[in-house]
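Key result, reporting period 2: structure in, sequence out.
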């Protein structure tokens, strides 16, 4: 399959630059993946579309203020870093602006007297998939440092700097463990009232954790999608959540993934003998048409960017033509797209 097979035309004015005035006040396109039938309502109507007895699975990862700005000591140039994750040796894997110029030995000044230096990354320099650098900070930085000086890592299609309100609105109401470099955005629609409405319908909930990194949001640069390789992302599943999912699956109750990150976690951790494996893990799973789903029966998700792995995932779930037709209709009806945009429920 060609990457171009997953393109669609999207007017730039439909890319949401801000969240709705109130959380949860977004439109919802409901797609039946068996019949192709589509209907339109609001996210607040979601409980009516989920069968009682279903289990909804959410990603409770918390977005870190992972965008830091440093000044190159040798040139004074301002360099933007997006810190992805901390390694065991204390260094940080990071994406950076003008990546090829950021070479081992280059040093930077950061706020509060912190300095950073790019260190060697064994076996990666010069490779085509080398998308990151390793930064060592002196003194070492922690979560409190991010909270004090970091910026919310809004995606590049939001063409503005982060504002104070993004610290709340680019975070889910149930976020717990800090570690994501981007929000699991399907969860941004949920309010405490909506969660209560789901519980009133006898819909159960489970939490898993996948820290969103490059695997989720890097573009597909290869001509044929089978040549694309996903970057690894870290996940964690509690014994309680694993039991909830395993039991619901055994009882034939629908599993509803809230977001592609929850879906990828569930599909990655499902064992060959039919249960969800608890514990910490890492996944580089790439789901595209032809994939056979083992766990997830329904998917609540946002609208995704053209040619992206996320659009390929939802195309695997519902069929490429049905997804592209639904997107075409959403464009014609002026839906808002991407992280701060409207939502889709695939049944």
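The corresponding designed sequence is given below.
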């Amino acid at each position: 399959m060609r990457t171009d097979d997953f393109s669609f035309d999207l007017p730039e004015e439909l890319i949401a630059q801000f969240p709705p005035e109130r959380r949860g006040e977004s439109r919802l396109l409901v797609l039946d993946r068996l019949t192709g039938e589509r209907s339109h309502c609001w996210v607040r109507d979601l409980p009516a579309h989920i069968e009682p007895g279903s289990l909804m699975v959410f990603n409770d990862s918390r977005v870190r203020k992972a965008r830091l700005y440093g000044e190159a000591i040798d040139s004074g140039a301002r360099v933007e870093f997006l810190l992805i994750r901390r390694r065991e040796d204390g260094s940080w894997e990071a994406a950076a602006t003008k990546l090829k110029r950021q070479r081992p030995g280059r040093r930077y000044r950061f706020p509060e007297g912190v300095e950073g230096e790019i260190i060697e990354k064994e076996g990666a320099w010069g490779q085509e998939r080398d998308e990151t650098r390793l930064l060592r900070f002196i003194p070492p930085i922690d979560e409190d440092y991010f909270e004090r000086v970091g910026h919310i890592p809004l995606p590049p299609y939001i063409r503005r700097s982060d504002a104070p309100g993004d610290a709340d609105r680019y975070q889910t109401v149930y976020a717990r463990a800090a570690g994501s470099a981007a929000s699991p955005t399907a969860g941004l629609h949920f309010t405490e009232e909506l969660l209560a409405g789901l519980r009133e319908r006898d819909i159960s909930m489970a939490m898993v954790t996948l820290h969103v990194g490059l695997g989720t949001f890097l573009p597909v640069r290869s001509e044929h999608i089978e040549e694309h390789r996903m970057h690894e992302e870290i996940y964690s599943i509690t014994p309680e959540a694993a039991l909830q999912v395993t039991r619901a699956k055994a009882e034939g109750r629908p599993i509803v993934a809230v977001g592609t990150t929850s879906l990828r976690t569930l599909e990655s951790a499902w064992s060959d003998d039919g249960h969800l494996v608890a514990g910490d893990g890492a996944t580089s799973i790439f789901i595209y048409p032809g994939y056979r789903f083992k766990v997830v029966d329904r998917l609540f998700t946002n609208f995704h960017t053209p040619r992206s792995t996320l659009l390929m995932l939802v195309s695997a779930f519902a069929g490429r033509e049905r997804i592209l037709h639904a997107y075409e209709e959403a464009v014609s009806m002026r839906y808002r797209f991407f992280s701060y945009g409207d939502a889709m429920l695939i049944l």
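Residues 259 and 301 are 5 Å apart (CA to CA). Residues 124-128 have pLDDT under 50 and may be disordered. This case is discussed further under Risks and Mitigation.
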